[in-house]
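Good morning C.,

I know you're traveling, so I'll keep this short. The sequence:
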Amino acid sequence: MVPGHEAEVAGFLRHSRPGESPPAGLLMQCLGRRLSLHRQQHIVITCWRDEAAFAHGTDPLGIPVSLSPKAHCLSDRLSSPFGISAALGDGAEGARILRVYRAEVAAASVKEWARRAGEPLASLSGREGFVCVRAGVDMAGADSRGEVSVVALSGWRDWDAVLAATGGHIDRLVQATDLTDLERPIGLDHYELLKPDTRTHADRPA
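The tokens, ready to paste straight into the viewer:
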């Protein structure tokens, strides 16, 4: 998401997370601000129990319903639903850095990619500063070139942990991957995770 009114949208995102009564089936939600980009860009990640919960908690474009009141503030919106193939960690609590790795896989190789996706990610489990990872396949299916988008979202405590896991090569998901025969890397973006605004209306200044 690219905000049209930065201060207003950033403030809204901070307190748009579900409170004590989150939507049914919402397993995780986090939001971040993209680093190393001239214009402000934000991302909202939501994980749902199943397709029914996803459909109930999002609008027809796949945007979380909690963002609907400020839709007019967003100059550009992009929603990409992915089916999770591999996961480690309960959620993003304690993470400060979100890494978004994107690649493309030939449609004929998607099942093989999904089967093997957990192998390189398993090496992250014991790393200092690692919090969570979710890897998945674009539910939209193959594009006109016969390729399918795949993504790996990982949360980290700080930059030191990222550098240690990648050997300083922050353009890689990890130092080495076993999926190079299947993937065509597209890019790896970094986001600063924003803490939610948990204050009540009474706590906020008038």
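Safe travels,
E.
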